[in-house]
Task: inverse folding
């Protein structure tokens, strides 16, 4: 009778909401990351990764580790120092939008660090040694996406799994790397 | 985790490094900035530690250090293996000096007192002010300084020479009597160098060389080598003579509970016997004649037979080595006691073998008498400007010494103290000095050893400090004096350039080399010369028992604290929460009293009593200690600060309130055993903040021992130590014996150890540890090292009272035989207890979420971010090594900038999370990463060194892969003394192996008395 | 289900109930306007609930440190109270399901209250694992569900078994309870009007008391009873394994499962006595809750108390007999150590006091039973306290021995949990017939006309 589907419906709704809650718990971090509101202010300088690292004609096809210098020898990939930017841009005014390059030189002249906004981050209770992954022959793109092809990076990039353990474990299983918890958590 | 996890948090504080700085763990609500360098320092790679060498200034021993920095921040201090003093180890106080670098109470800049109030000032005006005050003082400058390196020493002299004035060196802990005795006996004004390592029969007449004294780390290393049984079953013997068992005393094989001041008579009595037996008493034959055994026995209260026996063994089991009283034993005739010990050494022919007059420590040994004179001068207003540097007399002098009044009477008072202390509280001008980790300097810990001190990080920006040397130079310049350098750095270089020997190549490269290795050994360093002969006694000296003021029924023994020294480190939470190696009490002060004495007066443990001398009185809780004579009570230095920072101020009592201001004759040292006191209950009680549950093993196989005589016959020694053969729990119940030589490598993992979580992983390393209890002295350096390395928070006194201390490692102390009434053997057991990383870990199956589990490498891992906090694992841990974050200790207890010290490689835990020893997993990973980068070579043995092993001065701890039969740990574990705590009872199969303590007396089965 | 013999027995059961209509009248009267006594109790309970939730909120906000727990005593009052409430829950199912299957005639008038008690007790107990964890917000990790971490809970851990045991028990007993009430709700529906009527009509699931409905009802009821019966044994066994599975001296014992089940029924029946005596007074149910019922319950208490006492003694005996020094120390410390008082309270309340139940006069004196039942409740709470705390505070490593002192917050939550329980129970007595009308009628003599004529002649 009527009551049957009523009760059934209630039960169904209950289960779904329960699952939803749990998933939400898992997805929380990724969600925050995807949320554009999480980054109210954009980057201090409209830095075009594709212009620097892209291989299209007219792009500079630079190696990632030219700027992210410590990726192959440290747990941290490293952020280029202002002096490194200035090194090139003293002579390269910038073809497309020189005003942005001017900002770089401004920081350099003021001897001020550039307050870049962080895009890729994992929780502090997980350790990701960059050099191990580079040494294992991975391309930066496999985690960070085709950075050299995009002008503005955001975490909607499908490759980036966000702060999502399953995404790491998945790859570790595929590559038959250790899935021992204490490899990352200590 | 939702919050609290702030590993690398400090990175955001100054613009350096690209490592992630986060405020709120997972949540990314607010924008996170990446702050790149403007110009990258060439020697820093973000995420990779940079190491510098420098010299510890925690005490006058001056250990060489390696300093680990991350992104420009000091995160850990370690001993410099190339340095002859530290030999790679570091004591607790050394580690804790890091907390004074980040001490939140440091002065934020120079201060000038105006109408009673201190106001911030600029360095310009501060130096101007000092310059003109010195001008107007017209040469009446008094400089009170603590221990300082040769160059600084020279600079101060030059400075005073230029501006006119004189100086006095003052240190609360000083070896003046030993120096005076050496001068009398041999005509050398030096501190003798004891070769403890090669002594066969060591006698300490109250010298606490392990915890305080000339060179704790070096002497402790030597002692451990001497006192531990080697493969041939040889073992040096240590007899402790004194009214109270210090940490050093607790390590002894025999204890002669002599009445305070009786040491000289005993030593001379022994010398007399030896001389009679053919020893060469030299010019002292007549002196010794007066001390026949009978007299000596009567004067010292030690039976004749004991004296004879000791004398015989001092020679037969030699080479003998006798050490005179340490700071904790300085009574009115301390020089006499030291002289008697030296005579004993000489008569027994030890001088030149175990006692050397060359290469001795250059430790503090200035007499307190100079200070007394200075106080007089100040009181008589002969001083215009007084400057205090590197010492805190207002606190560490007896209150009745009159220092405070004299000091305040001086027209202009300057303090170089970098943080508030009792002396700077009275100063008119405060010129905060740099912490030694921020400053240049040098040190000469012993003849022929020169070490450089360099700034290992930029000065902590919160505190606008300036190195005292630079201040002196610029002030001198203001007064038109040129001391030959603009900055102290130049001065330092000039000094070394001047003393540079061309033999060692050009100066620049030698300088660099020294900075790199941290130490320069000059030719002839520490070589042993010929035995010096005794000189006839030329000055008046008495060997009689000293007198004590007052008519109280207890002699008050005031001794330096193993944790605070004389109070310099009282504001370090690490030191405050570190259980005192002797009493195991944290945070507050206590009075040591023998149970019988207390019982006779109806005093129970925890009763707050009034301790009164003619000079004053303090109220302090009683701790009952079987290791102190019934006619003595003991109080440690370091408590009762009145103005020393947020943690120290008002915590505990200051023993100096009870002491009279007496100088020992002839050395002029301050007398610490000077007065008697009365002890009367106040009727109040308190619980003692101690982690100690019981000091008795209750016949459990926890810290067994084996008698030296039983070594060598394994079959017996198995029963002896209660260490049956390893057994494997069977599915159907019952135990199946497993062939394994006392936990030898092949025992890991036991065949068919299918109850271990790592059952499937039989290849790859199996991390394990070996701890030699015959070496361990219970000094607790490992505890602090672990705390520093693993971001272990301190919890505070009231949490310790609730039983919530967080140390990952603790030193358990069990009494087996302690007798304060007569000379007899002594048996106190120390057991460093950390996570045993059991093969069959009881904590693992009970965790509902796999927050704790077994890694394939056999480590019992704890995944903090997975922990829900049921605490089931802690309940089920038979060793009780799991600690819980009851509150957000890491947030609430740690003020800026102390969180700069967090180790970025270790997760900082939030509340509601269980944690424990991880075998320094971060160091294992670091080594593995390194090996992987070097074309995937395997990790070498000895590459992974946990913090505890690294800092152990006794070299008692070894870590490594026990599956590799060549590894050090395998070698050590393959020993008949090896056992594993509680293993034969509950079959936990721990990865931590202990080597039983070796005793000279018989131990019953189970390893007990 | 009623048999002819049942009639006579029933007649003996409730001598003071003249006719069936009295039952409806007396029982449904409870649902009408509450008396003063009810309101007083309800206000007290509400205040207690406030304290309960307040203390818990404070603990979550400040950290689990506001409890007195420490190392080595990681479990204390919270787990004690958890086990206590799980235990309470048992007798309800015992009385309603097992006694039903055994056709015990005296259960009818008390089983409704007992079942309600079960449901609310489990509800209360279920909160305590959540209260005692360090990170409440991650407690859901104990539930197995597919997640993005590729992680499951550790099915080896007794705590995970608890999750299943307690949730299952709650579901089954709740359904059983609800099913049993349906006919009576219908009765209440017919006697009420307005909002209550609407409510009752919905939850009575259109019960009209037709023969067919009775038929189905009977079947379903007996099935559920059969389903609930094994749970009575399983749930508390699982709870006992929280301890028995650990290696802690004093916990690691094979006797625990039966020992806990017996203890649970013991405490549960005692609690039923406590509650029904109050109900009886407040709602004037003297005619329905007669000494016969209390006599039966008292006997049940007596039996279980003997089992429990036996368990205590055998534990001490085994500790001595094992020759295990550590085991011996643990039990010696239990009797004469820091927590000797708790142990002696336990032995007195659970071992000595119930001995009085041998005497018929005491079994038949309601006030005496009430007092004794209170003693038993206290004793059983302390039994769990003794097991949890005294075992933990003196374990293997002498150096790590420690003392545990419950904090105010803990006490607030513990006491508050009684209020929380009472709160629901009081609401129950006002909203659902606290005495099973229908089943009671089954054991009453069928209605017949008064024999007025003969009186005449």
Result:
């Amino acid at each position: 009778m009527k009551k049957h589907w009523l009760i059934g419906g209630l039960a169904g709704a209950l289960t779904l909401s329960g699952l939803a809650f749990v998933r939400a718990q898992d997805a929380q971090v990724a969600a925050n990351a995807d949320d554009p509101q999480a980054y109210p202010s954009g980057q201090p300088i409209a830095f075009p990764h594709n212009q620097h690292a892209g291989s299209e004609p007219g792009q500079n096809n630079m190696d990632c580790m030219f700027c992210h210098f410590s990726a192959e020898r440290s747990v941290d990939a490293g952020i280029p120092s202002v002096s490194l930017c200035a090194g090139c841009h003293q002579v390269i005014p910038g073809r497309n939008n020189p005003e942005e390059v001017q900002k770089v030189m401004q920081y350099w002249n003021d001897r001020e660090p550039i307050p870049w906004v962080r895009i890729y981050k994992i929780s502090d209770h997980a350790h990701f040694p960059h050099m191990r992954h580079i040494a294992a022959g991975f391309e930066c793109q496999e985690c960070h996406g085709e950075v050299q092809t995009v002008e503005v990076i955001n975490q909607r990039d499908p490759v980036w799994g966000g702060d999502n353990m399953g995404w790491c474990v998945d790859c570790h299983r595929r590559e038959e790397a250790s899935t021992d918890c204490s490899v990352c958590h200590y | 985790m939702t919050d609290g996890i702030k590993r690398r948090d400090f990175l955001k504080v100054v613009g350096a490094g690209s490592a992630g700085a986060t405020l709120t763990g997972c949540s990314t609500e607010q924008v996170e900035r990446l702050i790149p360098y403007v110009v990258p320092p060439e020697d820093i790679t973000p995420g990779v530690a940079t190491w510098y060498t420098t010299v510890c200034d925690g005490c006058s021993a001056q250990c060489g250090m390696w300093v680990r920095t991350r992104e420009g921040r000091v995160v850990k201090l370690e001993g410099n293996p190339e340095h002859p003093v530290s030999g790679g180890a570091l004591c607790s106080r050394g580690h804790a000096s890091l907390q004074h670098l980040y001490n939140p109470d440091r002065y934020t800049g120079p201060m000038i007192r105006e109408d009673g109030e201190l106001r911030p000032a600029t360095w310009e005006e501060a130096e101007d002010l000092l310059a003109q005050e010195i001008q107007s003082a017209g040469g009446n400058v008094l400089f009170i300084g603590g221990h300082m390196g040769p160059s600084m020493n020279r600079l101060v002299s030059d400075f005073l020479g230029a501006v006119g004035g004189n100086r006095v060196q003052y240190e609360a802990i000083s070896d003046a009597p030993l120096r005076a005795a050496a001068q009398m006996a041999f005509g050398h004004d030096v501190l003798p160098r004891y070769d403890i390592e090669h002594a066969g029969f060591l006698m300490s007449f109250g010298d606490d060389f392990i915890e305080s004294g000339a060179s704790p780390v070096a002497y402790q290393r030597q002692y451990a080598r001497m006192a531990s049984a080697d493969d041939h079953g040889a073992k040096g013997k240590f007899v402790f003579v004194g009214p109270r068992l210090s940490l050093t005393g607790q390590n002894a094989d025999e204890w002669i509970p002599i009445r305070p001041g009786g040491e000289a008579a005993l030593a001379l009595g022994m010398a007399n016997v030896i001389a009679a037996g053919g020893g060469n008493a030299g010019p002292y034959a007549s002196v010794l004649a007066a001390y026949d055994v009978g007299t000596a026995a009567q004067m010292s209260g030690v039976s004749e037979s004991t004296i004879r026996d000791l004398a015989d063994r001092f020679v037969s089991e030699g080479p003998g080595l006798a050490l005179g009283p340490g700071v904790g034993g300085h009574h009115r005739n301390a020089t006499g006691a030291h002289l008697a010990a030296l005579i004993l050494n000489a008569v027994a022919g030890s001088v030149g073998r175990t006692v050397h007059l060359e290469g001795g420590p250059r430790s503090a040994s200035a007499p307190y008498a100079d200070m007394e004179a200075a106080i007089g001068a100040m009181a008589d207003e002969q001083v215009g400007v007084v400057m205090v540097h590197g010492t805190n007399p207002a606190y560490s002098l007896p209150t009745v010494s009159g220092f405070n009044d004299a000091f305040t009477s001086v027209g202009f008072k300057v303090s170089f103290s970098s943080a508030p202390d009792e002396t700077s509280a009275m100063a008119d001008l405060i010129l905060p000095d740099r912490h030694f980790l921020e400053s240049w300097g040098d040190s000469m810990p012993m003849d022929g050893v020169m070490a450089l001190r360099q700034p290992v990080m930029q000065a902590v920006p919160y505190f606008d400090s300036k190195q005292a040397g630079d201040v002196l130079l610029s002030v001198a310049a203001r007064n038109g004096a040129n001391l030959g350098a603009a900055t102290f750095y130049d001065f330092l270089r000039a000094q070394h350039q001047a003393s540079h020997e061309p033999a060692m190549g050009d100066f620049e490269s030698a300088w660099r080399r020294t900075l790199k290795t941290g130490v320069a050994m000059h030719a002839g360093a520490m070589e042993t010369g010929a035995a010096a002969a005794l000189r006839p006694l030329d000055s008046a000296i008495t060997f009689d028992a000293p007198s004590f003021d007052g008519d109280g029924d207890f002699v008050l023994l005031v001794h330096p604290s193993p944790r605070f020294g004389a109070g310099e480190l009282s504001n370090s939470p690490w030191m405050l929460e570190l259980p005192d190696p002797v009493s195991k009490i944290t945070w507050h002060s206590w009075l040591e009293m023998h149970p019988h004495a207390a019982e006779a007066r109806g005093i129970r443990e925890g009763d707050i009593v009034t301790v009164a001398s003619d000079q004053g009185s303090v109220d302090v809780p009683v701790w009952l200690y079987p290791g102190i004579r019934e006619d003595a009570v003991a109080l440690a230095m370091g408590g009762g600060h009145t103005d020393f920072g947020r943690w120290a101020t008002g915590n505990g009592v200051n023993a100096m309130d009870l002491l009279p201001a007496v100088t020992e004759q002839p050395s002029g040292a301050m007398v610490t055993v000077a007065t008697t006191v009365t002890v009367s209950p106040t009727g109040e009680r308190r619980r003692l903040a101690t982690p100690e549950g019981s000091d008795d093993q209750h016949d459990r196989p926890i810290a067994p021992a084996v008698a030296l005589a039983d070594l060598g016959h394994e079959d017996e020694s198995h029963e002896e130590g209660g260490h049956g053969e390893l057994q494997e729990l069977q599915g159907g119940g019952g135990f199946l014996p497993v062939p394994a030589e006392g936990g030898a490598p092949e025992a890991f993992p036991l065949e068919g150890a299918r109850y271990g979580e790592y059952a499937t992983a039989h290849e790859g390393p199996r991390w394990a540890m070996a701890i030699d209890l015959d070496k361990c002295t219970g000094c607790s350096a490992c505890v602090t090292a672990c705390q520093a390395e693993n971001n272990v928070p301190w919890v505070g006194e009231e949490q310790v009272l609730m039983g919530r201390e967080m140390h990952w490692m603790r030193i358990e102390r069990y009494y087996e035989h302690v007798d304060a009434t007569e000379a007899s053997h002594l048996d106190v057991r120390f057991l460093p207890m950390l996570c045993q990383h059991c093969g069959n870990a009881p904590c693992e199956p009970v965790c509902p979420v796999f927050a704790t589990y077994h890694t394939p490498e056999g480590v019992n891992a704890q995944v903090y971010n997975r922990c829900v906090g049921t605490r089931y694992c802690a309940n089920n841990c038979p060793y009780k090594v799991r600690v819980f974050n009851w509150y957000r200790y890491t947030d609430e207890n740690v003020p800026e900038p102390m969180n700069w010290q967090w180790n970025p490689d270790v997760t900082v835990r939030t509340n509601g999370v269980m944690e424990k020893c991880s075998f320094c997993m971060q160091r294992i990973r670091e080594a593995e990463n390194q090996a992987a980068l070097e074309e995937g070579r395997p990790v070498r043995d000895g590459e992974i060194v946990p913090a505890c092993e690294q800092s152990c001065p006794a070299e008692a701890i070894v870590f490594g892969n026990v599956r590799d039969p060549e590894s050090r740990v395998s070698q050590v574990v393959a020993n008949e003394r090896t056992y594993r705590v509680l293993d034969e009872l509950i079959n936990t199969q721990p990865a931590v192996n202990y080597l039983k303590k070796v005793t000279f007396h018989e131990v019953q089965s189970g390893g007990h008395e | 289900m009623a048999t002819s013999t049942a009639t006579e027995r029933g007649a003996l059961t409730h001598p003071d109930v003249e006719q069936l209509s009295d039952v409806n009248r007396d029982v449904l009267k409870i649902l009408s306007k509450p008396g003063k006594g009810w309101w007083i109790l309800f206000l007290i309970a509400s205040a207690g609930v406030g304290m309960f939730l307040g203390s818990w909120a404070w603990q979550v906000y400040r950290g689990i440190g506001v409890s007195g727990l420490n190392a080595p005593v990681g479990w204390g009052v919270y787990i004690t109270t958890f086990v206590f409430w799980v235990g309470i829950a048992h007798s309800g199912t015992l009385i309603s399901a097992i006694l039903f299957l055994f056709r015990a005639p005296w259960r009818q008038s008390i089983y409704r209250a007992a079942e309600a008690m079960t449901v609310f007790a489990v509800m209360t107990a279920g909160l305590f694992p959540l209260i005692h964890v360090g990170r409440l917000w991650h407690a859901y990790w104990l539930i197995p569900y597919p997640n993005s971490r590729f992680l499951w809970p550790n099915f080896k851990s007794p705590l995970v078994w608890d999750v299943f045991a307690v949730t299952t028990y709650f579901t089954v007993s709740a359904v059983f309870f609800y099913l049993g009430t349906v006919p009576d709700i219908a009765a209440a529906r017919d006697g009420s009007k307005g909002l209550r009527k609407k409510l009752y009509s919905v939850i009575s699931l259109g019960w009209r008391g037709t023969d067919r409905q009775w038929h189905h009802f009977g079947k379903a009821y007996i099935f559920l009873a059969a389903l609930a019966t094994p749970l009575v044994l399983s749930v508390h066994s699982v709870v006992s394994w929280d301890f028995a599975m650990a290696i802690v001296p004093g916990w690691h014992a094979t006797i625990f499962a039966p020992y806990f089940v017996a203890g649970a029924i013991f405490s549960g029946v005692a609690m039923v006595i406590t509650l029904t005596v109050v109900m009886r007074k407040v709602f004037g149910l003297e005619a329905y809750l007669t000494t016969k019922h209390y006599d039966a319950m008292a006997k049940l208490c007596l039996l279980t108390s003997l089992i429990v006492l036996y368990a205590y003694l055998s534990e001490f005996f085994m500790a001595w007999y094992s020759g295990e020094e550590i085991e011996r120390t643990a039990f010696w410390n239990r009797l004469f150590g820091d927590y000797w008082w708790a142990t002696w309270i336990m032995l007195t309340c659970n071992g000595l006091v119930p001995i009085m139940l041998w005497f018929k006069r005491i079994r038949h004196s309601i006030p005496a039973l009430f007092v004794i039942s209170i003693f038993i409740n206290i004793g059983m709470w302390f039994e769990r306290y003794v097991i949890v705390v005294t075992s933990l505070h003196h374990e293997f490593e002498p150096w790590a021995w420690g003392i545990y002192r419950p904090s105010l917050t803990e006490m607030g939550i513990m006491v508050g949990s009684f209020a929380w329980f009472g709160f629901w129970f009081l609401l129950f007595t006002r909203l659902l017939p606290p005495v099973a009308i229908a089943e009671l009628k089954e054991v009453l003599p069928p209605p017949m006309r008064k024999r007025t004529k003969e009186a005449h002649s």
In short: Chain A has a mean pLDDT of 79. Chain A touches chain C at residues 3, 19, 22-23, 25-27, 164-167, 169-170 (CB under 8 Å). The longest helix of chain A spans residues 2-34.
